[in-house]
Design goal:
By secondary structure, the chain is an alpha+beta fold. The protein has one domain (about 10-60): Arc Repressor Mutant, subunit A (Orthogonal Bundle), CATH 1.10.10. It is built from 2 helices and 3 strands, in the order βααββ. It has helices at about 10-20, 30-40, and strands at about 10, 50-55, 60. It has a 3-stranded antiparallel sheet with strand order 1-3-2. It is globular, with a radius of gyration of 12 Å. The mean pLDDT is about 85.
């Protein structure tokens, strides 16, 4: 995912393709599980995320403090 910029939305399909490969690009359930685990590790309150935001039906937006 070269050129990834904070605040930019990454689609489910682009994340899945880059992480697991094109054969898994439609398996969004994988992504949901891993994003939930990441939030539990990274967010102060994983129920109210500040860094990994969900864009419903599209993907995820990564926010930084910068």
């Amino acid at each position: 995912m070269s050129g990834c910029q904070p605040g930019r939305v990454l689609t489910h399909q682009s994340i899945l393709t880059h992480v697991w490969g094109p054969e898994d690009a439609d398996h969004t359930e994988y992504l949901r599980v891993y994003m939930r685990q990441l939030r539990k590790k990274l967010e102060v309150d994983h129920e109210r995320p500040q860094y990994i935001l969900t864009e419903p039906g599209i993907g995820y937006r990564f926010i930084t403090d910068e």
